[in-house]
């Protein structure tokens, strides 16, 4: 399926590595008029669009619509494809974005790996590479390697570099929307002054680049091809080494004034709790995220409360992971089940406040720890219902992500496409 971003207009920056006087000038979206922009928007937001649909939507004469469509056809932006079944008369043909008009790159960066995807103008992902990286390395060396992989993917797909028009990058750290730089990078220290935006532009200039927090990327991906596809107001909760929230409000990503919305993992839930790396006391993720679960499991082993966890730890040189807690819980270990349920309660209490304030129609739970066991989701659901206003949960749906980690690289591609937007 085509993964279109909703309610968007795309602007294309083309450039040639060497002048080619035989190539006709490529009309940029910046040169299109308001009607042509509206046509693009309508085709993106709807399926099987015909000329008749466009004419009725814009309430313009067939002659005017034909003129505007011809401009889009001649520029290579649109095409008419397969005939629909006719109900009498001339068969209708559907209007579609021309897939090879341009290409974009999405990069979903994690602490230990990067997923790099090339997609066409319709958002169809053509090729993906997963590269092992170390964010403890210098960011310049990490992104030099990533961009070399991008060039290899373009070569493999026989796509000229001048047709690559935008990058979308997701990183596991707060992003300052004003500077485009990583801010307070607890997970990836040493990257705070590094500009991913500038580094990519130096290599591929001119090109459009947008960098966002990985949970925001997840939300965009869920909206494009996941459970959130039919929702205009929903949130995505990532539970992993930290806890974060991506917000889709009125069909658009909500990032706040400077890009710092959704950091629910740093809401204090226990003023007598442990000190968080952010400097606050008793933060949600310090008490309920993956590392906190592991700390509780190790403490239980030390107290002799779980023979199953103790045996797993012995087999792993004294180490325990959330996967081990999941395994022990599946074997009926009471301590492991209690750890999972308790984390779910803490997360649910914070989400209850979010639900009462925002009134979303859907909460999607994602992230590596979200798969630790069904009791986590059940605990979150029960707590949200118990702690929220009944009217706020009346139409609320809460579930695990159906696309999981795919939301990251789908979202990074959509972010790249959105970076081409220019409204008239």
What is Rg?
A: 24 Å
Low-confidence stretches: 1-27
| Mean pLDDT reading | 88
Count of helical regions: 14
Helix/sheet category: alpha/beta
Question: Could you give the order of strands across the largest sheet?
Answer: 5-4-3-6-7
Subunit arrangement of the protein: single chain
Query: Major β-sheet, in short?
Result: 5 strands, mixed
Distance between the termini: 28 Å
Shape: globular
- Percent of residues in β-strands: 15-25%
Helix content: 25-40%
Describe this structure in words.
By secondary structure, this protein is an alpha/beta fold. Helices cover 39% and strands 17% of the residues. It contains 14 helices and 12 strands. The chain has helices spanning 34-45, 51-58, 62-75, 139-156, 196-204, 214-225, 284-288, 290-302, 307-315, 322-330, 334-358, 374-387, 390-393, 406-418; strands at residues 78-83, 93-97, 103-109, 113-120, 125-132, 164-171, 208-213, 234-239, 243-249, 252-254, 362-366, 397-400. The chain has a 5-stranded mixed beta sheet with strand order 5-4-3-6-7, sandwiched between helices. A 5-stranded mixed beta sheet has the order 10-9-8-11-12. A hairpin with a 3-residue loop joins strand 3 (103-109) and strand 4 (113-120). Helix 8 (290-302) runs antiparallel to helix 11 (334-358) and helix 10 packs across helix 11 (334-358). The chain starts with 33 loop residues before the first helix and ends in a 6-residue tail after the last helix.
């Amino acid at each position: 399926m085509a993964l279109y971003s909703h309610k968007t207009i795309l602007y294309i920056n083309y450039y040639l590595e060497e002048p080619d006087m035989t190539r006709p000038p490529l009309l940029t979206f910046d040169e299109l008029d308001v009607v042509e922009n509206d046509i693009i928007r309508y085709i993106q937001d709807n399926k099987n669009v015909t000329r008749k649909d466009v004419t009725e939507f814009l309430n313009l004469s067939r002659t005017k619509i034909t003129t505007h469509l011809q401009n889009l056809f001649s520029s290579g932006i649109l095409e008419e494809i397969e005939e629909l079944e006719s109900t009498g008369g001339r068969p209708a043909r559907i209007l579609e974005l021309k897939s090879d008009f341009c290409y974009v790159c999405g990069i979903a960066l994690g602490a230990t790996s990067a997923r790099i995807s090339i997609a066409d103008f319709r958002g169809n992902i053509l090729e993906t590479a997963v590269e092992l990286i170390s964010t403890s390395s210098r960011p310049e060396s990490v992104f030099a390697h990533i961009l070399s992989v991008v060039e290899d993917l373009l070569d493999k797909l026989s796509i000229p570099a001048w047709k690559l028009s935008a990058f979308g990058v997701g990183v596991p750290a707060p992003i300052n929307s004003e500077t485009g730089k990583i801010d307070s990078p607890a997970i990836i220290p040493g990257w705070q002054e590094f500009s991913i935006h500038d580094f990519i532009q130096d290599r591929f200039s001119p090109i459009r680049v947008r960098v966002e927090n990985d949970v925001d990327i997840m939300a965009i991906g869920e909206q494009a091809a996941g459970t959130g596809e039919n929702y205009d107001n929903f949130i995505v909760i990532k539970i992993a080494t930290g806890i974060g929230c991506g917000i889709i409000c009125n069909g658009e990503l909500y990032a706040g004034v400077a890009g710092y919305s959704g950091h629910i993992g740093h809401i204090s839930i226990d003023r007598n709790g442990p000190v968080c790396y952010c400097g606050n006391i008793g933060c949600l993720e310090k008490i309920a995220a993956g590392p906190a679960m592991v700390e509780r499991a190790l403490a239980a082993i030390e107290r002799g409360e779980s023979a199953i966890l103790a045996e797993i730890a012995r087999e792993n040189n004294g180490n325990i992971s959330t996967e081990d807690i999941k395994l022990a819980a599946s074997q009926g270990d009471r301590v492991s089940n209690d750890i999972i349920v308790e984390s779910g309660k803490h997360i649910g209490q914070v989400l209850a406040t979010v639900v009462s304030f925002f009134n979303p129609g859907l909460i999607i739970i994602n992230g590596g720890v979200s798969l630790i066991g069904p009791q986590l989701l059940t605990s979150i659901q029960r707590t949200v219902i118990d702690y929220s206003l009944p009217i706020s949960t009346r139409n609320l749906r809460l579930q695990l992500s159906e696309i999981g980690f795919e939301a990251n690289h789908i979202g990074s591609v959509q972010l790249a496409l959105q970076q081409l937007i220019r409204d008239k």
